[in-house]
Amino acid sequence: MASLQDHLENLRAKPEHIRRRIAFTSALGFTLIVFAFWAASFSAEITGRPNPVSVAVAKAGTPGQSLIAGVGSLFYDIKDLVFGPKKVTYSSVIVTPGK
Questions:
Q1: Quick count: other Cβ atoms within 10 Å of Cβ 63?
Q2: Is the sign of the CA dihedral 1, 4, 32, 20 positive or negative?
Q3: What DSSP assignment string belongs to 56-91?
Q4: How far, rounded to the nearest angstrom, does the alpha carbon of residue 49 sit from its chain's CA centroid?
Q5: 46-84 tens-digit pLDDT
Q6: Tell me: the pLDDT tens digits for 79-94?
Q7: What global pTM score does this model have?
Q8: Are the beta carbons of 42 and 31 closer than 8 angstroms?
């Protein structure tokens, strides 16, 4: 099995029109793969249930709402780092065996 370096040297030795064809074919293949994943991310009505990506996008709302929620969350995280998280107290629970 040839190494990547050998493969690149083999490509460099080929004529210009062959290298252009290989570059175009590689770029087209990569673009088709990206397009396929992009198209699959839309919710398909064939299955009858919503796609998780479309559900997450619907919950996010507008970009402005998402940004405001992120900034608010950051504020509370910093506050918890500085002052400590809210204290949770537990009361005693007595467990007795059932009859």
A1: 8
A2: negative
A3: HHHHH-SHHHHHHHHHHHHHHHHHHHHH-PPP----
A4: 21
A5: 556 666 666 776 777 777 777 777 787 787 778 777 777
A6: 777 777 766 677 777 7
A7: 0.42
A8: no
